[in-house]
Write a structure and sequence with these properties.
about 425 residues, alpha/beta, five-stranded parallel beta sheet, two-stranded parallel sheet, 19 helices, 7 strands
Length: about 425
């Protein structure tokens, strides 16, 4: 019976699991839990192909427990009850480990049924998800589980797995691999952190290769064809999509143009140009803001040009916008001021208006006829002191001038008008 190479080479011990040293290293918490044999309910969170199922298999083997696997996209509460019925029988003498893949696909009722059995200890749950469990898994299950994050495999760790796969295929085919320079590195780098995908590419190279005597050439061209393009994870329904947008904004906010164009490129390669355009506009207003207010129409023009051009030329004006904002002075003063004002409104503050700010239609409703409004343009420097905030907020300061040159110039200008130095 045919078995994929990725299945044949599935790690049998924790030492064979690549790229998860932060949780499986010698003194890491998950490693110590597994070695102790006291396995709590756990949630494994991370991209596909990073070892979540493999580690569940190893846990079951090391603790001598029966492992049942269910996929939440197709499983029902009846499937869980069937597993429970086998408890305390010869089929599960040491208890059951239930590996539930894609737990976020279970609805609330299904998760509540599951909760009943993990709460009384009849089942030890190892759930996995590619989405952030704090958003997609119900709190009752989260509170009874320990979350471990499986990180995307680095190219260096993937290369170790690729080399192991090549050695295995050499032994199985009795052929000596002759990889072209960069071929194996390309497979490791293009797999998108998915070990399974990398091993599949190695298997394809050997299956479709043309031996030369007792040697199997592995060309870079074939490696590119077998690997194709890395699986960029940017599904709009997925957590990684929002991670990309967040990373783009935080990189520009952090004034790192190299990281900015990296995450922009990933969004564009994943076909998310409209989302990139919207996020660039947000960044212009929120993070550069009043330090360089002209950035807003500039970025808008770049976005308009990108939408008019379409891909691949759209990459150029969007890159211009990203680099310009990353290298521009930053200010979130207006954003912070609005947030502070919104917080007061949420607390019920700021009701009503000063009489002189009301619309003149109020003068014909039986109220006092004179508003007492002072028209600033009738005064020197187009300014006259008067109350603008509601009575309960008089004296409140929301806007603080940013430390950049433009806002400090405005601060000095208004300070000279609103707080003139005393006459000698």
């Amino acid at each position: 019976m045919y078995q994929p190479l990725a299945e044949l080479l599935r790690p049998q011990t924790l030492d064979e699991v690549y790229g998860q040293e932060h949780i499986l290293g010698k003194d890491a918490l998950l490693r110590r839990l597994i070695d102790s044999g006291n396995i709590p309910n756990m949630i494994f969170y991370g991209p596909s192909g990073t070892g979540k199922t493999t580690v569940a298999n190893i846990i079951a083997r090391q603790t001598n427990r029966t492992l049942y696997k269910l996929n939440a996209t197709t499983a029902s509460t009846g499937d869980i009850k069937d597993i429970v019925s086998q408890l305390d029988t010869f089929l599960a003498p040491n208890g059951v480990l239930l590996y539930l893949d894609e737990i976020q696909s279970f609805n609330k009722k299904q998760q509540q049924t599951l909760l009943e059995y993990i709460e009384n200890g009849k089942i030890t749950l190892i759930a996995s998800t590619t989405e952030n469990p704090y958003f997609y898994v119900f709190n009752a299950i989260l509170s009874r589980s320990t979350v471990f994050e499986f990180k995307q495999i680095s190219a260096e760790a993937a290369l170790q797995a690729v080399n192991r796969a090549v050695a295995y295929m050499e032994q199985r085919t009795a052929l000596k691999a002759a990889p072209e320079a960069g071929a194996l590195e390309y497979i490791a780098g293009s797999c998108g952190g998915d070990i399974r995908k990398a091993l599949n590419a190695v298997e394809v190279l050997f299956a479709a290769g043309r031996p030369e005597g007792d040697t199997m050439p592995l060309t870079l061209a074939d490696a590119k064809a077998a690997s194709q393009k890395s699986a960029l994870r940017a599904d709009r329904a997925g957590d990684n999509y929002y991670d990309l947008l967040s990373a783009l904004q935080k990189s520009i906010r952090g004034s790192d143009p190299d990281a900015a164009v990296h995450y922009l490129a990933r969004l564009l390669e994943a076909g998310q140009m409209p989302s990139a355009c919207r996020r660039l506009m947000v960044i212009a207003c929120e993070d550069v803001g009043l330090a360089y207010p002209q950035i807003i129409p500039i970025v808008k023009s770049s976005v308009d040009a990108a939408l008019m051009l379409g891909m691949p030329e759209a990459r150029i004006p969007l890159a211009d916008a990203a680099v310009l904002m990353a290298t521009s002075p930053k200010s979130n003063s207006a954003y912070a001021a609005l947030a502070a004002a919104s917080a007061d409104i949420a607390k019920g503050k700021g009701r009503g208006f000063p009489r002189h700010l009301q619309n003149v239609h109020a003068d014909s409703t039986g109220m006092e006829r004179e508003q007492g409004y002072l028209y600033p343009h009738d005064y020197p420097n187009h300014y006259v002191p008067q109350q603008y905030l509601p009575d309960d907020l008089v004296g409140t300061v929301y806007y603080e001038y940013g430390a950049n040159k433009l806002e400090q110039s405005a601060r000095q200008y208004w300070q000279g008008i609103k707080e003139p130095p005393p006459r000698k």
